[in-house]
Amino acid sequence: MSSTLADVSFCIVGLGLMGGSLAAALSRAGCNRVIGVARRQETLARALELGYVSGGTLDLAEGVRQADIVILATPVRDIIAKIAHLGGMLNSGALVLDLGSTKVQICAALDHLPPQIQAVGGHPMCGKDSSGLEEADPELYLDKVFVLCPLERTTVASLDLCNLLLSSIGARPLLLSAERNDELAAAVSHMPYLAAVGLVNAAAELAGTDDLVWQVAASGFRDTTRLAASDVTMMLDILLTNRQAVLEALSRTQAQLSTLRLSLEQEDQNALAALLLTARAQRKELYP
Amino acid sequence: MSSTLADVSFCIVGLGLMGGSLAAALSRAGCNRVIGVARRQETLARALELGYVSGGTLDLAEGVRQADIVILATPVRDIIAKIAHLGGMLNSGALVLDLGSTKVQICAALDHLPPQIQAVGGHPMCGKDSSGLEEADPELYLDKVFVLCPLERTTVASLDLCNLLLSSIGARPLLLSAERNDELAAAVSHMPYLAAVGLVNAAAELAGTDDLVWQVAASGFRDTTRLAASDVTMMLDILLTNRQAVLEALSRTQAQLSTLRLSLEQEDQNALAALLLTARAQRKELYP
User: Fold this and answer.
1) How far is A192 from chain B (nearest CA, A)?
2) Claim to verify: residue B99 and residue B191 sit in the same structural domain
3) pTM here?
4) Which residues, in sequence order, are bridge partners of residue A145?
5) pLDDT tens for each residue of A200-213
6) Which CATH number belongs to the domain containing residue A193 in this structure?
7) Given an 8 Å threshold on Cβ–Cβ distance, is B218 in contact with A145?
8) Which of residues 253-272 of A touch B (CB under 8 A)?
9) pLDDT, tens digit, for every residue of A79-101?
């Protein structure tokens, strides 16, 4: 393969927000051979019309047959299901990368690909609360962290190719084990999603007896609950394939809420202030 | 008093984000007599320089002496403390309004003002996670809900004057009892703040053993935890003066998280999906 990506043949499986944005970014970066695989003809037509792909098909086997790099951009359990069928479809030496948010189960599935296939797990730390091709943005990955999880089989050349790909879309690579990705993502992504869901459902409970609840909701509620609008198929797959790490993150957050509760129940102003000040300092350090 | 506000004499006590923004909005709306009361001379100088006030003083009694409308814009417990001293300082017939987020204790304090003083509790549903005069914005109140809590003593004329004030800054009045304000605000504002604090402190706990946590935090974590950056003095006062309603909102949210936890522990996909779909539909309805 050449040291630039112009001649590399890509196949992006799934043209939703993540896959569509990647196709758009690669095409904008000068990649001429970007094939999209979608479930619906209209999606392919629209991706072609937008110039995100150079061709498309509804047939996975046809799409991946000639690809140098196959990128799986569907929900996590769909990625796992597709990997099981990919082995016989791929060029020898093809590289499989995915965009799924949980990596332990996906990397385990990738491990079972035939040995002549290269593979790396991927987890871009970006997204939107809206989904679908129309939401795709060629700059979605720009300056964002993109976790790469090498497998035992992953060669230096394959990792270099991934880094070249990330560089062409402006993403910042971060090498992690699949286990570590899943634990960290549970804490800063999957748990915040559950908190947003819990806040909305708790407020809805009150709205059952007081219909003015939503009129009083302002920008704080809007931002804190933004993730609750995420695509449910995507999130359900994430939660169910990262169950243990999510439960641990949930335990930590539940314990923090119990501690906050106790200090408020006891009107322990010093303890409560200490908890609030710690969080504020941490948040300010993270987002100055 | 005239039917416009141009000749009304205002005194805004506290020139932070909320008071500074109100002063800026009133001045922009053509009010010529806006006196600010602050703790520091530099704040007064800066507010004058920015054209937010027409005059200022460090002395509460001097500031409120000639005011037709006094607006208290400091943290809740400071508002309550100041109300106790206001009675003897005010013009007969002056109107006291406040911007505190919790209203039961403030309105109870306002009830003890001398009978010739008019008073209305106020709670603007807007803000920022940053505080101080430099963050003030004359458009902060524009199109935002502004809760008004009339007292027993509140006359129609006083409420009309409040509505005129709100209209001049572009805010949308919502009449609520103090009790109802506090219950609703606990659900959509104070509880989301506690959730943000809990999420940050839980992630920080993990960061104690894995220093890459913050590198993986993306826009979802940023938005969900935005409120954790709020001013702690302000939030501590809010939580401690709205303890019972916040504890009830906390109970509802903790129950929702326990329900989510159970469905995930049991891998009950249908139950989990139902919870996520309910939250998503509600959130999408609220913010289409």
Assistant:
1) 6
2) no
3) 0.95
4) A172
5) 999 999 999 999 99
6) 1.10.3660.10
7) yes
8) 253-258, 260-261, 264-265, 267, 269, 272
9) 999 999 999 999 999 999 999 99
| Separation CA A139–CA A128 (nearest Å) | 12
Residues ≥6 apart with Cβ < 8 Å to A208: none
Nearest to B260 among A194, A223, A229 (CB): A194
Nearest Cα residue in chain B from A185: B216
User: What is the 3-class SS of A158-201, one letter each residue?
Assistant: HHHHHHHHHHHHCCEEEECCHHHHHHHHHHHHHHHHHHHHHHHH
Interface of B with A in 182-211 (CB under 8 A): 183-185, 187-189, 191-206, 210
Q: What is the tally of structural domains in chain B?
A: 2
Nearest to A203 among B188, B255, B257 (CB): B188
pLDDT tens-place string over residues B81-112:
999 999 999 999 999 999 999 999 999 999 99
B36 backbone φψ class: left, alpha, beta (φ>0; ψ -120 to 50): beta
Q: Phi/psi at A34 (nearest 5 deg)? A: -125, 105
Domain identity same for A157 and A225 = no
Q: Does A39 touch chain B (CB under 8 A)?
A: no
Q: Which two tokens stand for residue A77?
A: 């359990």
Question: Tokens 């990955």 belong to which residue?
Answer: A141
Separation of alpha carbons A228 and A193, rounded Å: 6
How far apart CA A62 and CA A16 sit, in angstroms, is 19
CA distance A157 to A163: 10
| Both structure tokens of A149 | 């999880």
Look up the domain containing B74 and give its range: 9-176
Positive/negative CA dihedral, B82, B87, B90, B96: positive
User: Does the residue B1 lie in any domain?
Assistant: no
Distances (CA, A) of A280 to A49, A191, B129: 46, 19, 10
pLDDT in tens, A238-280: 999 999 999 999 999 999 999 999 999 999 999 999 999 999 9
CA A199 – CA A85 distance, rounded (Å): 40
What is d(CA B16, CA B132) in angstroms, rounded to the nearest whole number?
4
From A176, A194, A217, the end of a domain falls on A176
pLDDT mean across residues, chain A = 96
Q: Which residue(s) pair with B175 in the sheet?
A: B148
Q: Locate tokens 């296939």: which residue?
A: A117
